Amino acid sequence: MGIFDALNVSASALQAERQRAEIVAANMANSETTRTAGGGPFHRRQVVFESTGSSLFQLALARTGGYSGPPVGSVRVADVVDDPAQPVMRYEPGHPDANQDGYVAYPAINPAMEMVDMMSAVRAYQLNAAAANATKQMIQQSMDILKS
Total structural domains in the chain? Predict the structure, then answer.
């Protein structure tokens, strides 16, 4: 793995964490949405990360220089999936989305859990930004050494 590959790994993690933060923000924004275009309440969404270039074959190719994909250890968003939790039913007979028994289906979103997810995504983003800055400093110091 070259020094620029380390920068690419940090960049891939920054992109993945940014997307995770956007999904968490959308969950929070839709925590009271009882009707979507697809019908029914909003479903909480979760990001699934995947490491790229981590199979034994890809690792062996990377060692020989025959692997041309993303740097080994990069991260990417593999999928964004709906949370399978059932909606929370609240008795509100006057609500326009109430069923025949007077219950309204609300998304199963816990604001405290979403805030923990957001703080985790922000902290991971900050750590990856610090790693990218450290890599940039190493590159700059290497260039300064080569100049003299």
Answer: 1
